[in-house]
Design goal:
Rossmann fold; binds 5-amino-5-deoxy-1-O-phosphono-D-mannitol; 27 strands; Glutamine Phosphoribosylpyrophosphate, subunit 1, domain 1; globular; 607 residues
Amino acid sequence: MCGIVGILGTSPAAPLLVDALKRLEYRGYDSAGVATLENGVLTRRRAPGKLRELENVLEKAPLSGHSGIGHTRWATHGAPTEGNAHPHAIGKVSVVHNGIIENFRDLKEECIGRGVTFETDTDTEVVAALVSLNIAGGMAPKEAVDATLSKLQGAFALAFLFEADADLLIGARRGSPLAVGHGDGEMFLGSDAIALAPFTNRISYLVDGDYAVVTRGGVSVFDDSGAPVEREVKTATASAQLADKGNYRHFMAKEIYEQPEVISHTLGHYIDMARETIVLPDAPFSFADLDRLSISACGTAFYAANVARYWFERFAKLPVDLDIASEFRYREVPMEKGGLALFVSQSGETADTLATLRYCKDQGQHIGAIVNVPESTIARESDVIFPTLAGPEIGVASTKAFTCQLAVLACLAVAAGRERGVLDADDESKLVNALVELPRLIVEGLKQEPVIEGFARDLARSSHVLYLGRSTSFPIAMEGALKLKEISYIHAEGYAAGELKHGPIALIDEDMPVIVIAPYDRIFEKTASNMEEVAARGGRIILITDEKGAAHSNGLAERIIEVPDAYAFVTPILYAIPVQLIAYHTAVFMGTDVDQPRNLAKSVTVE
Ligand code: M6R
């Protein structure tokens, strides 16, 4: 994912910017650039490739100036060329950006109509154009940025440098992280505290929706309503700056909130936005040649695979054999040579998954791995790696790795559908656009956190919780139950809603909360019938749904968590967020060790 740095310093900014960008290299990138105010003029140096290339450019053509912004770019809109590298500049405004501006096409049209000429294929340039137009229209930089932010859709972080003022940076955060570094007579912006570690350990973190007006004398922060707010300055230790919880009480909370950004980054790796198509790494197999597909995994990764089965079967008409790796490895499954076996794993080290992979290899299968740790054993032993770009996941309970696994599997299912002739270009474009909207929808969905926190205390008093869902919401019900078990130690089960009357309905009474996951889709009414059955037996229903689902819930639910409307294809990813928050807040009330729950290991390298 892209990395952002901004400096208002007392010495030449360019080398410091490059130094800070090096600390963001772990996020992955394919071009880089810096801009400084050289004698009051915005001047840029950019280069495709690694930071070494940018350093070569700077050696030949150094930049002076004590104020600057820098960027490492992971290409999403437009190839990783010098021209598309950030910072972008229009008029007297330069900007660096992490994330995606979803409505950039409409905004670009608007700017072209107002006389702007664009030089790049990026979504970012439109941000510089809008701010520049506002300034040309007489607004001060703060008002110009404020007015621009209200027009942008998507999940992003931004940092602006203005030609008219060498003592001003403006940063904004919506969905992607941004930290402010407080020095002595110097101030900084960075994607995280790690980037700012050489300059200062006094850090404040912007909250989603904030923007910050930074001068050498300090920072003024404004929230999403434009009201001034205080954000606490914390002193980060060196180790904390490496494994940094930011404003969050637990890594799990931080990782839940990172999801808009890491999903955006992961999707950016697979989606060519210009052609609205999925691009996969070269592989020694074609989905078109397969009769079936096998997917194996453990725990949360197995639930991601469960969702994927619905997608592959629906969008690619490809039957899926789905297995818990610890079962598969001892089943002696006969396999036709030349098939494809996919493995899903955050760590890439899970012993059962690895053993299953080796078995499938012996059976002459092509091996594909959806992994978060690219140097892991599972990655190394696979023919092709489909990386999830979730970044390091510290909390033992998997959150962002799960939704990134789903994002990758969704891309694979769409690509399979195209290769097998099930999806035409129009179908693919619709599905791709549904995926691209996800980071923004997740940002919206996260706003339900206070509602969830409000009833978590109640849930924390329960001894058992039942989760119900149909279709792709069924695996999310199982994942919700697993999350709650893992970190709150409350017994929970996830069931296919249609199975209720085949047994679990006997459990229903007024002490059994039932969490129903039901977007308003083609089978909503079926799940609504199951809610009737629960309500008729005095069961207390917590319904996770959208606006239409809430309107059609007939007053059956004691509580409703309303998730934004979304295309049915992507709802499992979107609905994973509230189930994570339910588990998190319940565990916080229980006072358990949220990040390192008892008896659990992050990576299960033994049988
Ligand atoms: O590293 P992996 O994805 O292979 O791990 C699989 C499971 O151990 C893991 O998902 C586990 O269930 C998590 N603790 C779930 O939160």
